[in-house]
Amino acid sequence: MTSKNKEDYLRSIYELQTKAGGSVKAGAIASKLGISKPSVSEMMGKLKNDGLVESAPYGAVSLTGKGVEEARKILRRHRLLEVFFSDFLGINAFHDEAHETEHALSEEAERRLEKLLKHPKKCPDGDEIPRRGAKVLPLARAPKGKPLRVLFSTLENEEELASIKALGIIHGEKARVLKKINRGPLILLVKGAEIAIGADVSSNIYVEVGG
Fold first, then answer.
1. pTM of the predicted protein model
2. DSSP string, 2-63
3. Structural domains in the chain, sorted by start
4. pLDDT-derived band of residue 93, with 50, 70 and 90 as boundaries?
């Protein structure tokens, strides 16, 4: 179980990574949360000790698999509450209301809220609401032939990021693993084209299975 403060960090890092496509700098996290860089650095140490984030070279951070799972749970509650406060109660400050309430929402309450709202797919801002129980894992471990949806990468190298984006590997894009070559690249179908991705890159791209 994470504290309220840690939950805010995890949700923010996830949102930043899906937008940027790669690892995020402490400055970006500080700006999003409205806090100082030293405070971010201190919390990153705690999250790293909890196995929720990992440090990349040059000070960038990325969520681990465990961190992704926790962040999506938090983000799911937050965005369901945004729908509730905005569409159901007509409250304009739905961001603030959702932030205040998300930490206290139980799993049972979340399920009932989702049913009450008729299983919304997106929040009032048009951002997706993570699916309950969706399996998220690195592309290198994704099952062959299953529909996938790209979430983000943990890459920091700008050239590598630009390369995968040019291939269409961006947040929300549909994909499918066609072939896995032993000790070699995997063959991925994206936008109707077959592309080869090395293990060093595919292990740093997170996808949602069945997305």
1. 0.86
2. --HHHHHHHHHHHHHHHHHSS-B-HHHHHHHHT--HHHHHHHHHHHHHTTSEEEPGGG-EEE
3. 1-131 (1.10.10.10), 136-209 (2.30.30.90)
4. very high
